[in-house]
Fold High-affinity branched-chain amino acid ABC transporter ATP-binding protein LivG.
Amino acid sequence: MLKIENLSKRFGGLAAVNEVSTSIEKGKINAIIGPNGAGKTTFFNLISGVHKPTSGRITLDGVDVTHLRTDEVAKLGVSRTFQTTALFDNASVLDNLIVGHRLRTKSGLWDVLVGSSRLKNEEKVCREKARDALDFVGLSHMANRMAGDISQEERKRVAFALALSTDPKVVLLDEPAGGVNPDETVGLADLIRKMVKHGLTVGLIEHKMNMIMSLADKIMVLNYGEKIAEGTPAEIRANPAVIDAYLGSEHADA
Ligand SMILES: Nc1ncnc2c1ncn2[C@@H]1O[C@H](COP(=O)(O)OP(=O)(O)OP(=O)(O)O)[C@@H](O)[C@H]1O
């Protein structure tokens, strides 16, 4: 699905991502783990067009997407969530989703000024997509709640809904279970499994090792920007380099 070849990103003298080659495999949960500052979020930022790579190549189903902008990558089917879910706290959950969707599918100013039929149609589609996404993540009953009044776990679900509202093929989830309790983590893991069951491909960054080990089909381990291992959960758990760099340390949460 996504093929990443020799991908690097330098910030000044720092190689945040260094010559990483891997793939995000279709219909699978592809996890990325590693210590704080290992380059995991930067890796997602490169794939989703937030940062331009210093070198390397990214292809999506054979199409070169290396230098595309975020909105262009989103239109081709790559969507993502962020570590912190920025919502408009004084707007309803549904309105947050509608605005989020519009930001990703915006009509031109001309459409807005003349109230074109394209815009009206887009608005209708947008509202339907938002409701479908809310339903998928189990928050239909929260549609009219103020975003500022919902729990951290519900914010995480809204983040999933935002990512799903653009009909992606691949969803990149950056610490989806950060800051939520163990029971809620199980619920979010179920939701990730449901995404895959519905045909989505998932990229997953997470520090919660129980969650990663039970969910991932494959795990890539980054350390100081470099890929130090890749394999099944069982292979990764037994890999001495990974234990040394990450699993044996205090970084990985249960
Ligand atoms: N925009 C930026 N400008 C300069 N340096 C950056 C930028 N983004 C990330 N870095 C640096 O790149 C390195 C990798 O950071 P990144 O956030 O990708 O790590 P991470 O593995 O996601 O960490 P965490 O688990 O803490 O989220 C860090 O040293 C970070 O300080």
Summary: The pocket of adenosine-5'-triphosphate is lined by residues 11, 14, 16, 34, 36-42 (CB under 6 Å). The first helix runs from residue 40 to 47. The first strand starts at residue 2 and ends at 11. The two ends are 30 Å apart (CA to CA).
